[in-house]
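#lab-general

N.A. 3:47 PM
ok so I finally got the sequence cleaned up, no stray characters, all 440 residues accounted for. can someone with queue access submit it? mine expired

B.Y. 3:52 PM
send it over

N.A. 3:53 PM
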Amino acid sequence: MQTKHPDGDNLLDFDEALDMLKASLSLENNPKYIPPVETEPTFGTYPYWCLSQAARILWTKVNEWEANLQKFHFVTNDEWPFVIAMLNGMSQYELQMFAENMPDGSIKWQAERLWYRLYSKERKEPLRNETIDDLIVKFRNEDPNEYPSARDKLMTRFGVQSYVDQVKIIKALLRGEDCDREWCYETMKTWWSDELILDVQRVWETFHEKECASIVARKLPSSYVITHRDELEKKDYASVCLRLCTDENCQVDDTRLNRTEFIEIVAHNHWKIDDIDADELLFGYLLEVLNGKVSYCIDHHKHNATFGYFDYSIQSERMKYRPRLLFIKSIEEYVIALGKAGKTNTIVMFYRWSKHVEQLLDDYLSDFAIAEKLSGLMKDDFRAYQDWIWKTFKSLALQSFPFDVNEFRNTHNKYHFSNHDKSYYYGRNWREDMFMGIFK
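B.Y. 4:20 PM
back already:
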């Protein structure tokens, strides 16, 4: 079994460390223990309980490390497998006495842990990882001493298990508490097996949870979704539309959807939309952003990724920072979805406008007076500079908007989306699964 130092260092296997030690000391053919002597002086500086050669060697090393033991650290990480091997070479009594006599620290912790695992009658920690079946049994028994640990291990080990064991884990956790079921719902968004259909049906009909409704609408047979359509729509209208509204003539209540959900449905179900609708979906959203009607509109991950961490500490690099329309949240996803719908005219218009706004900003910042102002602002607070340049960028973008704003609002008013911004894949890249064909 591999173990880990309290400070987090990975260790060798016990048997491997012990074999290395025996080889270095030429002890391959010698017994673990040496016979005790009759007279006290023979023990020299060793405690009376150091009967084995392993105990004596380690005690000598402890004395050598006395200065380092004040901080309970070792000279190098390479010494820790040596300690593990020595502790394994001790008798039960020696190990117990060693743990009792050591000051608090890494060695004491490891000695106590080893003794507890090998000799404690109360409870033994397994020498190897428990099997998935054993963990599921502990999870289902709901023993307060074993249940939390078994649940955590099932979740953390899920990703490296075989398909058969993964199905077992999901089935078991779906019978757990609400937090266990929530973990299953999140996992089933991107990992799915038809063997889970009956289990998901049971959970949905028992608890009617919103997260479960999303899984039911997207993963279960369409016949079941149609049968339970009304109750599913109350929990997750967008997921039901995504699954059942395969025809662009299908009646969809856009007031129950946000813009992201609607575009997701359009792209996934291959709806045919005209150029006016495409312009409204993309440019209508940008108009709302530029007018401040949409909060949290900047995708910070994208615009922060334009510079490395250390570049932010260099003023000359900070001055090169330039916003882009693609930094606005969800814009890239919208463009890709419209591309899937074949709306190239809208996409070309967007990119031409985007390049034009970037050029307008560069021309504006090239002014000497503006550059002097920015230099002073930069010294005070780079975040203030970012906020200022984004405000300037949005002003220039609004001034160069490809359509007359008033006319656009009068002619592109087909949709009335809700303001909420939480779809099935909120917080992750939903288009990845959509375009890879995971939905059935």
